[in-house]
Amino acid sequence: MNTLTSYQYPVRPAGEAELALITRYITDDVSAIRAFLDTYSKKSRHTTRSYEKECYRFLVWLRARRPPAPDLLPEVVTQDINDYLLFLENPRPFDHEYLLSQGWKHQPFRKPLSTESVKHTLTVLFRMFTAMRELRRTKVDPYCMFNPVKMAHEGMGKTAPDEEVEEALSEREWLAVQQAVESLPRESDRDLKHYHRARWITQLLYRAYLRREEAAMLTMGSFEPSPHGWDIKLVGKGGKKANIVATSKLMDELRIYRTSLGLSPLPAYKETLPAILAVTGKDKGITPQAIYLICKEIFKMAAALVKDEDDRAAQRLMLASPHWMRHTGVSHTMEAGVDPRYVQAQARHSSLKVTARYDHKRRQAWRNALEAATDKEEPLDQ
Q: Which of 60, 81, 263, 377 has the CB geometry, 3.0–4.6 Å to 258, for a possible disulfide?
């Protein structure tokens, strides 16, 4: 097994007690990264940890390629970014002693990154280098003269506004997910807790269009009655507060989940109990990672259910992540003919153009029109 070795210039994303005061001028990479991360201090804990991880592990990779120096980031060029992208496709473990010298206790890269993860990595690095052009190395010189991620970042691109979202389950695939949940064992009290939690998670993500981080942060008190029905108050992506509709079907699922826990059917005002509870531990909530693992297991079971009749559907289910539940809920609602403005508000999309990407009826209508045209053709002579 090939490992990567380098010299020692410790990267230590340390606790606050170990942080040195940042002067008006930035002269080393660690201080530059800290200054960049400080701009995200008001964001959610998930966002700040994600950004911190991407910045520091890029620096660990960079230091493994360069002679030791405290200021390597200003020397990064576009070729380095392209090399990093290749590395992310097939990451190799770093030398253990080198990692310890960098303040890491585990390998920062354990497997190849998915396409979405690579895009996220590039986005973070793009913002980091953009910010470092605003930091001053001297009175006149920026810490980084240019942004080396710019071309690679633009090359990856974002989904075009009118491009359809493919990461949504079909009606058959969504049915298989529900069947997988219903096939979970229910013989013991612990089995029942696992079943009801899995059912609640899939229904919550699907019907409220939630991201797993948002679902993990919810409390029972996040569900509030209004003169028109129940709402959900939450803190979404980027720390934005939102107030969305909790449909009657979703509230029915909440009643089922709460009753299974021995709670009253509906939550009390300002109830602080987590909306999704861990199976072990009284009043203990669940983490976004736990939601991810639970969903992946359900998708795996669903894939096994459809494999014999539809291998492609099985492959898609094996690739699915919790975020697909959000996409699926939005897509199915659009296909049901709900006004896009309401879907946009519920999904908290930035514009109707984003919401329009979830409307798969257009493509089906397009296909039906072409098929109808070919049906009118005269048959070829046999």
A: 263
How is the chain split into domains, by residue range?
A: 16-156, 171-366
Distance CA 243, CA 232 (A): 6
Nearest by Cα to 181 from 273, 248, 253, 252:
253
- Give the span between the Cα atoms of 376 and 369, in whole angstroms: 11
Name which of 281, 236, 279, 287 is nearest 260 in CA terms.
279
Select from 64, 63, 59 the least CA-distant residue to 32.
Answer: 59
* Residue 231 host element (H or E): strand 229-235
189-240 pLDDT per residue, tens? 999 999 999 999 999 999 999 999 899 999 999 999 999 999 999 988 777 8
CATH superfamily placement of domain 171-366: Intergrase catalytic core (1.10.443.10)
C-alpha distances (whole Å) from 14 to each of 20, 38, 41 are 10, 14, 15
pLDDT in tens, 237-295: 777 899 999 999 999 999 999 999 999 999 999 999 999 999 987 789 998 889 999 99
